[in-house]
Please model this.
Amino acid sequence: MSHIKTLAKDSLTLYGQSFQSRFLLGTALYDSPQQMLDSVSASGAEILTLGLRRQNPENGDGERFWQMIRSTGCTLLPNTAGCKSAKEAINLALMSREIFNTNWIKLEVIGDDYNLQPDPFQLLEAAQELIAQDFCVLPYCTDDLILCQRLREAGCQVLMPWGAPIGTGRGLLNRYALKSIRERFDCPLIIDAGLGSPSQACDAMELGFDAVLLNTAVAKARDPILMASSFKGAINAGRDAYRAGLMQQRQTASPSTPTIGQPFWHQHTNT
Amino acid sequence: MKSNSLRVVINAESYDLKCSAKLTDALSLWQSHCGEVEHFACAINGEFVPRSTYTTTKLNDGDCIDIVRPVGGG
Model:
């Protein structure tokens, strides 16, 4: 009974809003809108990321996409992907708030075209301004401890450090830094970007991260719907493992079967 | 371009309007070329313009208007 209660209480709370799923899913790169919808359904995700782009009506299918996203009933987390300055990100966030009617923003300010690494200085500046304008900022940041401290001081209630550069699928590149962040901050921490396999997502959750945000690993799988389901299972497994408490690693072997009562023992000692 | 008109760029395409044109006029012209759009947001020269001010926002020659719409994102 108490075990069931414990499971039921394990919700994710972000800016005062509770979620049962710890899987945040992106909505780009799918072969079709229907495949995206089916993947969302298989993932169990309750929060979806999406973006804003110039798009003339004759090009693309913006209205249909918007209707499909709304039909999921998921919480929307618009991003500022592609912005390279605080000013760009702030203005795109304001446009997002008007279109999506939400003050949640996944704040991205990119500082390098090669690895899409966040620009920490512009990111902090944008976060400060947007929080002053009543946004709930979820910053996509590096695993730099001091940057995370500054973002927390600015008022970010959630941090989203990268596991690896966007779209690389390389997993948790800097476990030391990520573990340090987990140990130092008690706010929700979401690994955002760089995860390529369910085992990597499980790894992040076992480290104590509160959730995982990804897109490419699902959308570019041979079977995105099956992969979404696989990530869902891995994230839940990792979360349960973290809550259950992992055993301490040891250098030397230790038998799990009792040695007392071992038959034939005397035969070995006599030879 | 005529002297009593101004030229603006909307999503990288040029449009000519009357000198007295407001943002709402530019958006109407854009939609008459490209089709009706319901969900969009707008910026002029990189600065967000709230929907509530479309009818009062004056345009200047050379203004660059960005109109954005929802797309998939990560």
About this structure: Chain A has a mean pLDDT of 94. The domain at 22-244 of chain A is CATH 3.20.20.70 (TIM Barrel). The interface with chain B takes residues 26-30, 36, 49-58, 60, 62-63, 65-66, 69, 78-79, 81, 87-88, 91-92, 94-96, 98-100, 166, 193, 213-216 of chain A (CB under 8 Å).
